[in-house]
Amino acid sequence: MVITCLDLEGVLVPEIWVAFAEAAGIPELKKTTRDEPDYYKLMKYRLDILNQHGLGLKEIQDVIETIEPMEGAKEFLDELRSMCQVIIISDTFTQFAAPLMKKLGWPTIFCNTLVVSEDGKVTDYKMRVEKSKYTTVKALQSIGYETIASGDSYNDLGMIRASKAGFLFKSNDKIKEENPDIVAYDTYDELMAAIKKAL
Question: CATH fold of 2-13+70-111+127-198, please?
Answer without folding.
Answer: Rossmann fold (3.40.50)
